[in-house]
Amino acid sequence: MTPTYIRGKLDSGLMAIVFTGVTPYGVVKSRSPIRHWVIVEDILRVGSSGWLRVYNPFTNREEAYRFDEVYDLPSRDSIGLWVEPRRLNTAKASQCNS
User: Fold this and answer.
1) Where are the domains of the chain?
2) What is the mean pLDDT of the segment spanning 58-67?
């Protein structure tokens, strides 16, 4: 799992739900024993790493974290899912607003 790989998947329209860790205060820490999930919304590549913009349901807000704070690559504990978000059909949406 690399920042380049994540960027490509996000650019293709998929969303990442990542299983990671969290502190008792809601701060995402990949190596925390408290398991948690976040949604990766964007990534800004910086060198060979990057910064992630995630939605954290613990705090119910968007937050920014370094790549290695979310993904624990050495232990492979950071697994997740790639999902295609449901999009409302614009024709049906305009009918609902009429």
Assistant:
1) 3-96
2) 93
